[in-house]
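Budget justification note: compute hours in this period were largely spent on complex prediction jobs such as the one shown. Inputs:
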Amino acid sequence: MSTEMLPYTVKPHPVTGIYSGKLGMWLFLASEVMLFGAFFSTYIFLRVGATSWPTGHEMGLSWKIGAFNTLVLIISSVTMVLAWASLKMKNLGKAKMYLTVTLALAVLFLVVKIAFEYVPKLSAGHGPSYNNFYALYFTMTGLHGLHILGGIVVIGYFIGPGAALWHKDPDYYTNRIECTGLYWHFVDLVWIFLFPIYYLM
Amino acid sequence: MAEDHANISKHVRLYMAVFAVLAVFTVVTVAVGQVHIAKPWNFVIGLAIATIKALLVAWVFMHLKWDRQGTVWMTLGLCAVFFVALITLPVLISRDVPPQAGPHPWAGMQSHVTSHADHAGH
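Corresponding output:
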């Protein structure tokens, strides 16, 4: 019986040329492009079809909060990739430090979003049913926020119990962090588009 | 290995450089949003900056610069095809839909947004 439960977790697959986890993550991200793409398409469809469309400022969105959250996510992307680089340099302590900073920034993003954006708007009765702008805003940023939450769970796992894999198979653990990073950078990428279309245009 | 360390150190320098560029582009995006630029150029400029930022994240942070395997590029190609289809198909299909007679079913909820259908038949 083979001791390797999953093949090609470290060495590249002979057909694809990459380890299987990376291919799996890219395929998943392709499905995520379709998911968010459908919502971006809806946004274009509704905005182009409207005789008038409010700006983010008119709808009470603060570009300062949006810009702050954008920088938070960009920094978290940097710390995520630095965590992977630290693992490639065989420094687990530094990697865990970068992962913890990434986690903290992700939590900060959600706290700012919920406390300073969602709660005031919902308290004032400006929820998804108020108009098309808010319907799209809450749906798209809410879906994005759920993705952030999912990332928080995964990163938390790899800081905590998941880190035990480093001692068993460090290359496998490094690859899993790289795949987590791919997911996290995609989440950052989505926000890079959400920020201008809702807050600035 | 020493060679890996040297390569990874180069990677780290590149990551920090890209971070600086992303931060600058974020400031530029905000600045462009504050200046009144005629449509559609405000959309074009804003989305162009967002696209450049996205490409930098994908090229460097997501390691596409170093992953030359065709598999990843084929997957991305598929992504691109689906994304373009999702964006363009609804716009193309909507041209065949005749204007709706009568008020829009959501007219009462759209206090800040009106659609072309609201004006059909008036």
